[in-house]
Amino acid sequence: MPIGDTMDRKIEKSKWKKYRLYVLVTAAVILVGSALVTGASSGDTLKIDNRRIGISSVESGDFQEFIAFSGAVVPIKTYYLDAIEGGRVEARYIEAGTFVEKGDKIISLANTNLLLDIMYREAELFQQSNNLRNTKLAMQQNRLNIQSQLLDLDHQILQSKRVFERNKKLSSKAMISSDEFDSSRDDYQYLLKKRELTLQSFEQDSIYREVQVEQLESGLQRMQDNMEIVKQNLDNLVITAPVSGQLTSLNAEIGEAKVRGERLGQIDILDGFKISAPVDEHFITRVQLSQPALFTIGSNEYTVHLNKIYPEVVNGQFRIELGFEGREPEDIRRGQTLHMRLELGNSQQAILLRRGGFYQETGGQWVYVLDEGGESASKRQVKLGRQNQDYYEVLEGLEPGEKVITSSYRQFGDYEQLFFKNEA
Predict the structure, then answer these.
(1) Secondary structure E strands in 136-262
(2) Is the pTM of this model over 0.70?
(3) Do residues 334 and 273 make contact, with C-beta atoms less than 8 angstroms apart?
(4) What is the pLDDT of residue 234?
């Protein structure tokens, strides 16, 4: 029995060594396999599933550079209603959306300060008018007084002249004294000089009065002109339609205060339409007048041409306007959004690569190109040029017929070569 026990224990020890050898060999195989798998997905290569990527063929064809954007259909002519004079909205005669005729009342404003200003100006005008009238009356009275003085002086001069001439004859015959002759002569000369001074004074006063009257009349005219302007401002408190058309917007509620220059609404002339659109500032030097743009309504394609460029850049965009040549599409409507393509230059023969997500990671400097068998793809330096909504223009690095991974490269990291688990 002891011998049997000993033999049993030796047999068990031999089996354990045999099993341990199997375990070690199996573990070694697993480690080697893992190392091989890991080695296939590390370093410069990576295995991927080609069913989850986008592959495009390099093509040769006409390349047309264009800008894709959205534009809004607007009336070809729009008249804005602005508050020329501020005030409180007192009445609203027409609602938005109504067709109006030229001269129709739209809203009226009330401005108490403007009314008080008109009253003050009217009082000033009345006072200035009274001053002018009083000045003219004073000139007339002064003219009459001078004429009366001259009349008296002429009468005195006539009498003095007679006395002087009579005494002159008597003095020559020594019939009167020399003192009496000198006195008559002096009186006569005094009256002549007095008349001359009176005329000079009258002339100077007349000139002064005339200048005063001219100034008063000029001031009165300016006040009347200002009054007309103020009265026009009073008339401008009633907002009327400058043209016939559709009142498409009206921003005014009863009792609301409006300041001078505030936009109150707009009137559209619906005789024709144009398209207004914002464009990225990147293309501001590329767009030119008369360039064609295409858009589609239903199954029909239409062409418009760029006829106005607004160079001011706001929030990274500038605005353009495009016009129709001939009749507009019958089913076009104001405010409608159109998706358009504006052509930049003429089409040219070029090597083309379809657009894709790869550009976000590479910036167009390199791509993964498939080998002839389609079993792998290698990184290749390329040079891309212009682009449109569908293609990039290939300048260097690719030839027509080659296949390129054009989907996103985000999951590929920086591997130089990709191996496909399935055939391309």
Answers:
(1) 238-240, 245-250, 257-258
(2) no
(3) yes
(4) 83
* Cα 267 versus chain centre, distance: 19
The answer to whether the Cα torsion of 11, 13, 17, 20 is positive or negative is: positive
Give the pLDDT confidence of 124-137 residue by residue, as tens digits: 888 888 888 887 88
Q: Which run of H or E residues covers position 213?
A: helix 178-235
Please tell me the distance from the alpha carbon of residue 118 to that of residue 228, in angstroms, as a whole number.
10
Residue whose entry in the numeric block shows the structure tokens 């220059």: 261
Q: How confident is the model at residue 366 (pLDDT cuts 50, 70, 90)?
A: very high
3-state secondary structure of 170: helix
- How many CA atoms lie less than 13 Å away from 315 in the CB half-sphere? 2
Diameter over CA atoms, the chain: 213
CA distance 163 to 161: 5
pLDDT of 213 strictly over 60: yes
Assign 138 to helix, strand or coil. helix
Decide: 323 and 355 in contact? Cβ < 8 Å: no
Cα(46)–Cα(418) distance, integer angstroms: 5
Q: Work out the average pLDDT over 357-376.
A: 91
Q: Which residues pair with 107 in a beta bridge?
A: 92, 239
Supply the pLDDT for residue 367: 94
According to DSSP, residue 390 is labeled S
- Mean local confidence (pLDDT), 61-83: 88
Find out whether 118 and 227 touch, Cβ atoms under 8 Å: yes
Helix axes 112-172, 178-235, angle to 10 degrees: 170
Give the CA-trace dihedral at 92, 97, 99, 103, to 10 degrees: 30
Residue 394: what pLDDT? 95
Q: How far is CA 101 from CA 74, 80, 247, 312, in A?
A: 20, 15, 10, 35
Between CA 248 and CA 241 the distance in angstroms is: 12
58-72, 120-134, 254-268 — which is least confidently predicted? 120-134
Asked if 352 and 60 touch (Cβ cutoff 8 Å), the reply is: yes
